[in-house]
């Protein structure tokens, strides 16, 4: 949505970042699924060249030469991790790198590289245009500003919303027609599932994570079906580079299927929980570190749905 509707703001944000760090080039890594946006973005890049906001002496600032290009990716989920993204940009398989060195020292083609997501860059442009004080009028103490949320699942009005940071989960659900939810995934498949008793909590830096994906689960949802769906996704999207993620996710998936059949003992379930904690600590990147989150949340908050199926 930001790429298509706020292309100029994005390019402005990239240019601001380039000026701030002394770079002379910026790159938009465009997932393969978004190829249809390439021509539009290129046309806005061309327009900014014509208007003097890209190229030589940007904005009349002598000595500040900056340009932006588009590099296409294939769409792997793991490329949301910055070093895997850089590997893909260089034409390699998208796999996380060992760190250090960090991208700010040794990034794209060995050069210092700053990696930010689209929303951060658009927001930077808005703050520079309207001022930090304006931005701080939204949100709550220690969590100021606003955030985009992509809301899907069992609600009447799914879509992309902008809410002030600090909105309660209950308020968010009321806005989208999901008041009867029994659980909400904050942060998508990589986030945490929160039950009804936690809906009074806020989505803020000091409370529930501010990940932009929100999935609403209604009262009829089987939470083990949810866990199975998420883990199937992670098994598919794991790059397979590190052992905890490559081997751990299939084991978690099989455990969920055993739970659904009622063939998973309490002893084995405790071993699976221990494995999940190991994955969170030992996986190389955020995919493996976060893939057990939803499963562990379900085990914690929806025991009544699960333990009835576990043989004593």
Keywords:
de novo design (two linked rop proteins); Ubiquitin-like (UB roll); 9 strands; alpha/beta; 3 domains; 13 helices
Explain what you see.
The chain is 43% helix and 14% strand. With 312 residues, the protein is α/β, with parallel strands linked by helices. The protein has 3 domains: 2-132, NADH-ubiquinone oxidoreductase 51kDa subunit (Rossmann fold, 3-Layer(aba) Sandwich); 139-217, Ubiquitin-like (UB roll) (Roll), CATH 3.10.20; 223-309, de novo design (two linked rop proteins), CATH 1.20.1440. A 5-stranded mixed beta sheet has the order 6-5-9-7-8. Strands 1-2 form a two-stranded parallel ribbon. A hairpin with a 2-residue loop joins strand 3 and strand 4. Helix 8 packs antiparallel against helix 9 (243-261) and helix 9 packs antiparallel against helix 10 (266-282). The chain starts with a helix and ends in a 6-residue tail after the last helix. The mean pLDDT is 92.
Helix and strand topology:
Layout: H1 2-5, H2 7-21, E1 25-30, H3 38-50, E2 67-72, H4 82-89, H5 118-130, H6 132-135, E3 139-140, E4 143-144, E5 146-153, E6 159-164, H7 169-176, E7 183-186, E8 192-195, E9 213-217, H8 223-237, H9 243-261, H10 266-282, H11 286-290, H12 293-301, H13 303-306
Parallel strand pairs: 1-2, 5-9
Antiparallel strand pairs: 3-4, 5-6, 7-8, 7-9
Helix pairs in contact: 2-5, 8-9, 9-10
- Strand arrangement, major sheet: 6-5-9-7-8
CATH topology of the largest domain: Rossmann fold
Number of individual domains: 3
Which superfamily, in CATH terms, is the homologous superfamily of the largest domain?
A: NADH-ubiquinone oxidoreductase 51kDa subunit
Helix content: 40-55%
Oligomerization category of the chains in this entry: single chain
Sheet with the most strands, sense and barrel status: 5 strands, mixed
Number of helices: 13
Q: So, CATH architecture of the largest domain?
A: 3-Layer(aba) Sandwich
Report how far apart the termini are.
Answer: 50 Å
Radius of gyration: 22 Å
Strand content: 5-15%
Mean pLDDT equals 92
